[in-house]
């Protein structure tokens, strides 16, 4: 339907694919991955699905109904312009590479949430002023990628998001809007 919220996830690696996207998918939103690994992008475009397994569980989640683009594809700017929320799940050292694309797409009012295993991963995006809302989330879980696109992850883990930098909370199952985000990280 045309009413689905549009989420863009930069990074179709273990965390983006195995943890963030399936959590988003349970909320019935439109998901587009953007990645710089051409082989991975082509494989996911061809397969159109992958599975997520969970440590200690027999159930398997099949992730489908997603789109994926290579970061240099023509459609990327349009997808970013139309996004309701942008999430990043890439190594902190690569976050700078997103700045030119985000600036070109002029995502000034779109919430961007950097979800990583690090602290203050969002700083380069803040410094470049790509958006007025740049938040952070943190991952307290392990995901392991496999050769066949499947990922093994932890079951039922929620993703804390720093609500202080967003104009309004994301009302999503699996995401916790955290007011004391800094304290949470320090713990």
Could you walk me through the main structural features you see in this protein, from its secondary elements to its overall organization?
The protein is an alpha/beta fold and 187 residues long. 25% of the residues lie in helices and 28% in strands. The protein is built from six helices and twelve strands. A hairpin with a 5-residue loop joins strand 3 (50-54) and strand 4 (60-63). It is globular, with a radius of gyration of 15 Å. The mean pLDDT is 93.
Topology overview:
Elements: E1 6-10, H1 14-25, E2 30-35, H2 38-47, E3 50-54, E4 60-63, E5 66-70, H3 76-81, E6 85-88, H4 99-105, E7 112-116, H5 123-127, E8 134-138, E9 144-145, E10 151-153, E11 159-162, E12 175-178, H6 181-186
Parallel strand pairs: 1-2, 1-6, 2-5, 3-10, 6-7, 7-8, 11-12
Antiparallel strand pairs: 3-4, 9-10
Number of continuous helical runs: 6
For the residues shown, what is the average pLDDT?
93
Oligomerization state: single chain
Q: Strand share of the residues?
A: 25-35%
Helix content: 10-25%
Largest sheet: 6 strands, parallel
Series of H and E elements: EHEHEEEHEHEHEEEEEH
Distance between the termini: 42 Å
Annotation, overall tally of beta strands = 12
Largest sheet, spatial ordering of strands: 5-2-1-6-7-8
Rg over C-alpha atoms, rounded to the nearest angstrom: 15 Å
Shape: globular
Runs with pLDDT <50, length 5+?
none
Structural class: alpha/beta
């Amino acid at each position: 339907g045309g009413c689905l919220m549009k989420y863009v996830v930069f990074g179709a690696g273990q965390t983006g694919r195995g943890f963030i996207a399936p959590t988003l998918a349970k909320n019935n939103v439109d998901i587009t991955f953007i990645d710089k690994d051409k082989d991975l992008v082509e494989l996911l475009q061809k397969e159109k699905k992958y599975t997520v397994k969970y440590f200690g569980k027999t159930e398997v989640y099949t992730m489908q109904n997603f789109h994926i683009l290579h970061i240099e594809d023509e459609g990327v700017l349009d997808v970013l312009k139309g996004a309701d929320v942008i999430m990043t799940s890439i190594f902190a050292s690569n976050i700078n590479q997103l700045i030119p694309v985000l600036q070109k797409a002029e995502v000034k009012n779109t919430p961007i949430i950097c979800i990583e295993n690090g602290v203050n991963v969002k700083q380069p995006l803040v410094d470049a002023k790509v958006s007025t809302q740049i938040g952070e989330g943190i991952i307290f879980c392990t995901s392991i990628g496999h050769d066949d696109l499947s990922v093994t992850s932890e079951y039922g883990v929620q993703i804390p998001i720093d609500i202080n930098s967003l104009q309004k909370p994301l009302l999503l199952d699996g995401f916790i809007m955290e007011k004391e985000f800094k304290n949470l990280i320090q713990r």
